[in-house]
């Protein structure tokens, strides 16, 4: 390795002319390639909320901004597309997407209520809600304390939908914006506000409502997954946004935007940022003879802090203890941690600030250092506890052969003292320690076991603090400070292989022009191979990271080759199809004959790049399930189809619910349209929203005419029953009685009225009014009363005459009796 480095450095020094000529030729060849004309596509239409900081805001000139807006711009920019934003309050913004006036929205919380209306990208942020109260409030500590209180939320927001999903006895007070909700709380018109925590922090900062505070406890069950959203079924736009989102997350744009909009809200306040590291990992980080932090990482962190205006404390200790401190919140960020896919599930990482190479180490005279994993078989291996080498060897099934120590220095010391068969450690750190400690009985392997990105790291969800360090690294790279620090601490290990005798030796050889050209050619080949190897390693690392992301995705993700044989599946795919899915034809899982299978052929024939299909698939338990598939073709550099990558989601319950909803809607529409009674839907303020055909006939107006009227336009407002009925409905939510109604020609008629207040699926209160014309019934009742009155008068007349006759008969009988004659009339006793 040392000789090869000397040789290469000499050639680089003496072959600059040839390299310059080659570079010019490549430059000319590259920039003289014709550029294909690109098809100009119209910008995507979107809409942004006017006041949902820091996600979506509108400046003084009416321009949309905020984290979500800029993220959508960046995602579409990565796909070569532009976007134009309309602005308005959330109810309008939502309606524009529902009606197709815009193509997508940058900020929509994914909820069960919205699944039937929109399709969503993968979430770009998941956050929990919070409760805001007045500072003097002591009786509210969580969601359970809100029963019987007035809680302000923004109309149509996730918070309103969450509170309406379950009856908790909360009086929901809806406002146009969250700023209005917070002001209502401040002025005593509400007892609390349920809101997303970051939005509350930003609004309290902007509005200076110092009398409010955020309860330091998330709202149980209220998690918001923020996504881009498109109309239900718009698969093309959804795929465009998902791909663009993946690109900006991979290239660092997401971290930059996150830092820009959230860093001030998420960075620790009232204390310094604690930066952790290993106390025995020279020359990167260690404690010097005075017990003070020193090394490459330490200088790098201090330089970043100066550039970014951060107040930091560097805390070094045993590596395993420092990692535990970060997991438990005592350390905010690690200044050096190797990226591994397994670690990506627990931590977030910046871009790499160096790349380290792990090599094997043995004692002299005990054989060559192991060069492959097979060479490690049966050996006693020493590594640092919780180091990347530890994680790597455990993942490879070698945990039983490992001895663990607390530092890289301890790895080399124990080997030098005759313990263990070999060790794995970082090359540069090992060179430093061997030179410092004089361990001349140790030999380093030349073969790299694993090259790893060395990054700043923080727990998942702490992207804001990482974004500060990521941005600082970019600044140091641009102003040259990064190269100065690297040269100070690492330069000696990059240059130590060069010596003057070798230079002169090879100089004599390469004087021959023919050999000079040959060596230049060899150098070119070597450089090309090294570039290819480095790029291959980088791509492998990126591939591992992407596979980790795919593995964590909740949707099914499958890969097939050109023969439609499954070659890869994420955990969700294995859980659905079974552990034996790899190597089996996709056709094995189709239930019955389906046109879908033939439709997929358009991908493999090269006719389509992306398609959406729905198909019945056989789950591992034998049950048939309906899956929605988004399939994208995979092609090689020559445009030949190599296979397809597909994402699927089980939509069985969703389709059943949609069908049930469709039938339910048809059923109720049939009742509505065919009812003999008039049916009216009104808003709480009295505006008529809809009317059935019987209502149109009863009032002598069309639906369009009725929906331009208000409830009072159809009622005789002088009827004393009106005020009484409204009072009953206000108290109980429903009322029944008789009212005088007014037709289009101004004539009045009597009607039975039944009125009920209800809340529709969107959370909007409405009233349904059933009107039955009782004019004919009233006329019949009046006619009956008149007949009964006449009958009563006749009856009274007859009874009066009968009484007179009885009295006359009594008088005649009395006279006959006086005359000594017999009574003529028999009088019946009453």
From TrEMBL:
Which keywords are on file for this protein?
Membrane, Signal, Transmembrane, Transmembrane helix
Query: Which Gene3D superfamilies does this one have?
Result: PAS domain, Periplasmic binding protein-like II
Give any Pfam family that matches: PAS_9
Whose protein is this, by species?
Desulfosudis oleivorans (strain DSM 6200 / JCM 39069 / Hxd3)
Q: State the InterPro entries in the record.
A: PAC, PAS, PAS-assoc_C, PAS-like_dom_sf, PAS_4, Solute-binding_3/MltF_N
Which SMART domains would you find in this protein's record? PAC, PAS, PBPb
What name does UniProt use for this protein? Putative PAS/PAC sensor protein
Tell me the ranges covered by the PAC domain, including all copies: 611-663, 735-786
Q: Which CDD domains match?
A: PAS (cd00130), PBP2_HisK (cd13704)
Q: Which NCBIfam families match?
A: sensory_box
Task: Please give the start and end residues of each transmembrane region.
Answer: 506-527
Phylogenetic lineage: Bacteria, Pseudomonadati, Thermodesulfobacteriota, Desulfobacteria, Desulfobacterales
Its domain of life reads Bacteria
In this chain the PAS domain maps to: 664-706
């Amino acid at each position: 390795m040392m000789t090869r480095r000397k040789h290469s450095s000499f050639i680089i020094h003496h072959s600059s002319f040839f390299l310059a000529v080659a570079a010019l030729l490549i430059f000319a060849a590259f920039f003289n390639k014709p550029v294909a004309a690109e098809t100009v596509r119209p910008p995507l239409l979107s809409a942004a909320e006017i006041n949902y900081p820091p996600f979506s805001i509108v400046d003084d000139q009416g321009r949309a901004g905020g984290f979500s807006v800029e993220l959508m711009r960046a995602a579409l920019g990565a796909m070569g597309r532009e976007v134009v934003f309309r602005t308005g309050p959330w109810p309008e913004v939502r309606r524009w997407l529902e009606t197709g006036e815009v193509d997508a929205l940058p900020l929509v919380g994914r909820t069960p209520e919205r699944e039937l209306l929109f399709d969503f990208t993968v979430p770009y942020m998941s956050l929990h809600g919070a409760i805001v109260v007045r500072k003097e409030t002591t009786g509210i500590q969580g969601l359970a304390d809100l029963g019987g209180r007035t809680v302000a939320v923004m109309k149509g927001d996730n918070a309103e939908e969450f509170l309406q999903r379950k009856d908790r006895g909360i009086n929901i007070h809806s406002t146009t914006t969250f700023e209005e909700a917070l002001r209502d709380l401040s002025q005593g018109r509400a007892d609390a506000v349920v809101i997303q925590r970051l939005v509350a922090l930003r609004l309290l900062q902007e509005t200076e409502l110092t009398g409010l505070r955020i309860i330091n406890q998330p709202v149980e069950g209220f998690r918001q997954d923020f996504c881009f959203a498109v109309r239900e079924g718009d698969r093309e736009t959804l795929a465009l946004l998902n791909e663009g989102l993946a690109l900006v997350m991979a290239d660092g744009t997401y971290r930059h935007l996150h830092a820009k909009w959230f860093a001030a809200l998420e960075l620790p306040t009232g204390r310094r940022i604690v930066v952790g590291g290993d106390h025995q990992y020279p020359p990167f980080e260690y404690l010097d003879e005075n017990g003070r932090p020193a090394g490459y990482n330490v200088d790098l962190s201090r330089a970043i802090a100066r550039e970014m205006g951060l107040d930091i404390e560097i805390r070094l200790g045993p590596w395993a203890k420092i990692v535990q401190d970060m997991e438990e919140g005592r350390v905010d960020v690690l200044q050096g941690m190797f990226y591994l896919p397994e670690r990506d599930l627990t931590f977030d990482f910046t871009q790499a600030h160096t790349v380290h190479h792990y090599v094997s180490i043995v004692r002299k005279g005990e054989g060559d250092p192991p060069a492959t994993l097979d060479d490690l078989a049966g050996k006693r291996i020493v590594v640092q506890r919780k180091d990347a080498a530890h994680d790597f060897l455990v993942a490879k099934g070698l945990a039983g052969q490992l001895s663990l120590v607390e530092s890289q220095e301890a790895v080399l010391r124990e080997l030098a003292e005759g313990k263990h068969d070999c060790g794995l450690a970082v090359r540069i750190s090992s060179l430093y320690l061997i030179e410092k400690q004089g361990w001349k009985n140790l030999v380093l392997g030349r073969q790299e076991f694993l090259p790893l990105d060395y990054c700043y790291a923080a727990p998942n969800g702490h992207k804001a603090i990482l974004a500060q360090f990521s941005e600082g690294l970019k600044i140091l790279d641009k102003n040259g400070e990064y190269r100065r620090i690297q040269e100070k601490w690492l330069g000696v290990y990059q240059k130590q292989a060069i010596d003057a005798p070798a230079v002169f030796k090879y100089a004599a050889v390469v004087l021959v022009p023919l050999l000079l050209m040959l060596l230049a050619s060899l150098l070119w080949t070597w450089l090309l191979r090294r570039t290819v190897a480095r790029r291959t390693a980088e791509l492998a690392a990126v591939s591992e990271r992407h596979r980790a992301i795919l593995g964590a995705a909740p949707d099914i993700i499958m890969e097939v080759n050109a023969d439609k044989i499954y070659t890869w599946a994420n955990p969700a795919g294995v859980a659905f199809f079974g552990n034996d899915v790899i190597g089996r034809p996709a056709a094995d899982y189709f239930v019955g004959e389906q046109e879908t299978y033939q439709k997929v052929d358009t991908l493999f024939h090269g006719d389509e790049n992306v398609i959406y299909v729905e198909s019945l698939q056989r789950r591992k338990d034998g049950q048939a399930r309906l899956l929605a598939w988004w399939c994208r073709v995979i092609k090689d550099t020559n445009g030949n189809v190599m296979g397809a990558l597909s994402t699927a989601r089980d939509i069985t319950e969703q389709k059943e619910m949609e069908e049930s909803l469709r039938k339910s809607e048809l059923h109720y529409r049939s009742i509505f349209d065919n009812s003999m009674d008039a049916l009216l839907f009104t808003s709480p303020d009295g505006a008529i929203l809809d009317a059935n055909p019987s209502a149109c006939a009863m009032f002598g107006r069309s639906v369009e005419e009725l929906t331009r009227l208000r409830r009072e336009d159809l009622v005789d407002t002088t009827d004393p029953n009106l005020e009484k009925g409204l009072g009953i409905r206000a108290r109980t939510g429903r009322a029944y009685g008789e009212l005088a109604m007014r037709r289009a020609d101004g004539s009045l008629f009597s009607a039975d009225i039944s009125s009920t207040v209800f809340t529709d699926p969107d959370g909007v209160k409405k009233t349904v009014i059933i009107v039955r014309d009782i004019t004919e019934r009233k006329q019949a009742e009046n006619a009956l009363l008149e007949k009964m009155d006449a009958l009563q008068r006749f009856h009274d007349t007859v009874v009066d005459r009968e009484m007179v006759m009885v009295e006359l008969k009594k008088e005649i009988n009395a006279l006959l009796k006086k005359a000594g004659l017999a009574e003529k009339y028999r009088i019946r006793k009453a």
